[in-house]
Amino acid sequence: MKSLPYLLELGYELGFGPSVYDTMAELILAFREPDQNILFLYTDWDRKLDPHRDEMIQNDVKYFHADVIYDPEQAISRRVKEILLHHYAPKLDPNDNQTYMDELLTQFREAAYEELNEELLLKIGTAVHDMNSVYTLKDQNETTQVFVNSRLMFTNSTWLLTYDRPVNLKNILWYKVSTKEEIIQSFELTDWWFKCVILNADTPVEEYSFFLNYTEEHGDDHDGMVLYITPGSNDYFKEDVLPRLQNLLVDKLEIVR
Q: Which of 101, 122, 214, 233 has the fewest CB neighbours in a 10 Å radius?
């Protein structure tokens, strides 16, 4: 039976974002014994089952209409212009009507949002959202895909968090990081609000020694960054790991059970 998690309250004393990468990498390594592995998780989500999908599509078309969507390569704009051309002049070839498509986009943004065709807005919003969102590893850039896939150990749907498994969970990819440099690279390429397990080699993820969940919370009891530390069936946190954390964090350590 798993124990209740310890809570390490960090606030913002260590910094925020890249300024904490080095310290957090050392903190993770403090949990690992010499013969153990560190597995980070990357979650693939099902785009169509996202319970917030409709709301995000509505927001994205409004943001695109207001010209505040980040689109440095103009790929999203090109796709929207194709949708506009098909809506207003379906028989025209996009390759021969670039100037007209530019005019359609200008007219679209100049028009009052409330007066635009609802079906057209839905098509544009869906296209913008699908091109501007990341649901699976395949949506990431090539560097991130190679980093995760080259270190991949397991792919499953094992849910270790205390709240209910989301309906749009597709897969969880567990990949191994071995050094401080690899941990920092994982922060840079995926998410520095990390989740990882410390476990013995050739052990299923659910039989972890520690499950770490680093996130940001705001409430009456604490405010800022926190690390939830869930020990496995053999809880040696206080005896072995806590002294290492005390040496690492000195006066910045506050553990709450």
A: 233
Encoded amino acid at 65, one letter = H
Residue 43 β-bridge partners: 172
CA dist 101 and 85 (Å) reads 6
Residue 63, phi then psi, degrees to nearest 5: -65, -40
At residue 1 the predicted structure's pLDDT band, cuts being 50, 70 and 90, is very low
Alpha-helical runs (H) found in the chain = 21-29, 53-65, 75-88, 98-110, 118-131, 142-149, 180-189, 242-249
Question: Across-strand partners of 206?
Answer: none
Could you tell me which of 52, 42, 57 has the C-alpha nearest to residue 170?
Answer: 42
The three-class DSSP label of residue 211 is: strand
d(CA 39, CA 35): 13
Examine the pLDDT at 80 and tell me if it is beyond 60. yes
The one-character DSSP state at 196 is: E
CB atoms within 10 A of CB 247: 10
Measured CA to CA in angstroms, residue 36 lies from 29, 178, 239 at distances of: 10, 10, 17
User: pTM for the whole thing?
Assistant: 0.87
The CB density around residue 125, as the number of other CB atoms within 10 Å, is 22
Q: How far apart are CA 124 and CA 105, in angstroms?
A: 11
Rounded to whole angstroms, how far apart are CA atoms 25 and 67?
38
Residue 232 and residue 209 in contact, taking contact as beta carbons nearer than 8 Å: yes
